[in-house]
Amino acid sequence: MMDGGCCSPQFGVPIEHEARKVIPRDFYDFTHILASDNSNLENLLRIKPSDSTAEVKLWGSYLDGGPIADPYYGGIVSWYRTVCHGHPTLNPVVERI
Questions:
Q1: Which of 58, 23, 17, 55 is nearest to 37 (CA)?
Q2: What is the pLDDT of residues 17-56, one digit of tens each?
Q3: What 3-state DSSP class applies to 4?
């Protein structure tokens, strides 16, 4: 798991948790579940229970519609690039949710 805490303060985003896999219960507990790229979106839609109410969509759909690269395998440089790409979408996401 990536620990983004070392870079997040410069973006004003405190990160004091670890990532975990999405579980079927999440589709009932959350109103929105955002995928970083098409592969993640397909996987989420595959496990989403048919009677759940969560809206599942690409994170980038709130800005330019494009995917946001998954930084998991790329180390801190990939994490930094992902934050730089994703950070501009934060306000549009909050405004629409």
A1: 58
A2: 677 899 999 999 999 998 888 889 999 999 999 999 999 9
A3: helix
d(CA 9, CA 43): 31
| Residue type at 10 in one-letter notation | Q
* Structural domain includes residue 25: yes
Closest C-alpha to 24, from 57, 46, 1: 46
Question: How is residue 69 written in tokens?
Answer: 């690269």
Domain housing 64:
20-96
24 Rama class: left (phi>0) / alpha (psi -120 to 50) / beta = alpha
Tell me if residue 14 falls in helix, strand or coil.
Answer: coil
Which CATH number covers residue 41? 3.40.50.2300
> How far apart are the C-alpha atoms of 95 and 72, rounded to whole Å?
27
Q: How many domains does the chain have?
A: 1
